[in-house]
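Quarterly update from the structural biology core.
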Amino acid sequence: MKLRPYQLEVARAAMDSIQKGMGLTFSVEIARQGGKNELSAHLEVLLLTLYMARGGNLIKCSPTFKPQTIISMERLKQRLDDFGFDGIYRLQMGYILELGSAKAIFLSAEGSSSVVGHSADIVLEIDESQDVSKEKYTREFRPMGSATNVTTILYGTTWDDSTLLEEVKQANLELERKDGIKRHFRYDWQVVGRYNPDYVKFVQAERQRLGEEHPLFRTQYALLPITHGGGFLSRQQIALVLGEHQRQSQPQGKRTYIAGVDLAGEHESEMTGRDAPVNNRGRGCDSTVITIAEVDATNPSQPLLKVVEQYQWTGTPHSQLYTQMTDILKNVWNCHRIVVDATGIGQPIASFLRKELGSRVIPFVITSKSKSDMGFELLSFVNSGRLKLYKQDGSREYKETLFELERARARYRPNQTMNFYVDPQEGHDDFLVSLALVVQAAKGLSPREAKGWLRES
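Predicted structure, tokenized:
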């Protein structure tokens, strides 16, 4: 079997535990696209071959049946074909592969899945274990191998200290200190890269695009955990956002401009318009904010966004803003693309703007998943220096933007998603969200030949 040295190290340790009946539990962290799934599939082929006469069950679970469990089954089928078992193995009930008397049983670890009753006597594998519920594992999967003292392998990438993988990892490290038996295996992108130069080039490009401190780069490639409850942006990251270009009140030449529109909830407030004070941060001070950015596509694969203007209305009913917003986006800036918060009451406003301005308006519904994606994308632009705020001009908009950047918090969830926000007790996040929306507006743009305008790719 053609495995890399680090994959062989895990396979040999697992086989030693299985063949000697040691019943060890291993934790395996391999950088994303580093061959974790290939290692698992090759190990499964070997075990099915060894047990095809005597029989036995190996069980593998994934956080979801579709697509993760299905992908694991397909990968095993491909490897069985590669080793000459095509037409010999059988698929039963849509989730069991049989080779002789040996079975590979693929199960979902979703909370609603029904898995009780299965037993594992060859090996128990937990794929992407950082996304598997600790309760589900302890109550339903772990007991599957209790009668046979089965060897267990948990694969994944790091996330934070609350995951199943991290809990098992820490327990394994403690056991290693006591008896010297290696149970935890960690191979970050640099280890993987020793055997694949193309992989190094890819990860280095990701590091440049995301930034070395981006949560996804830290966890998926560097295998470094993140911490809970910290600031969304560090002082160094905020410093990267501070630009040297001047604020503009109108477009310059044939440049391309995009916009992010965060719509306020319509709470009553006595303070309206641009005269509302920065420190008036009650519930009724939620604002509608438009951020205008110039797109510099000198590097088409990584465009630079220069924030050139911001507009804020506090306490003004949306119905009174329609005309003004349309004029700003269409007549003043002729924005090429406009991403509008279409969540809740924002939906009809986004529909109105789309009717007036056409397909350049893209509604964006904020859910826990979409906001997480939006936050990660915003971080990638910040970390790589591709989002710049205009030069300090003493304006209320500038001060409020910095206030929100400094106060923004991040909360990372076990399913590798995150939320970013400003504590309501401290203020609002209207300018922060508007910045994130303008970053969304930059997605999928590429330069036209010999022109400064952009088109959708």
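The CA atoms of residues 14 and 151 lie 7 Å apart.
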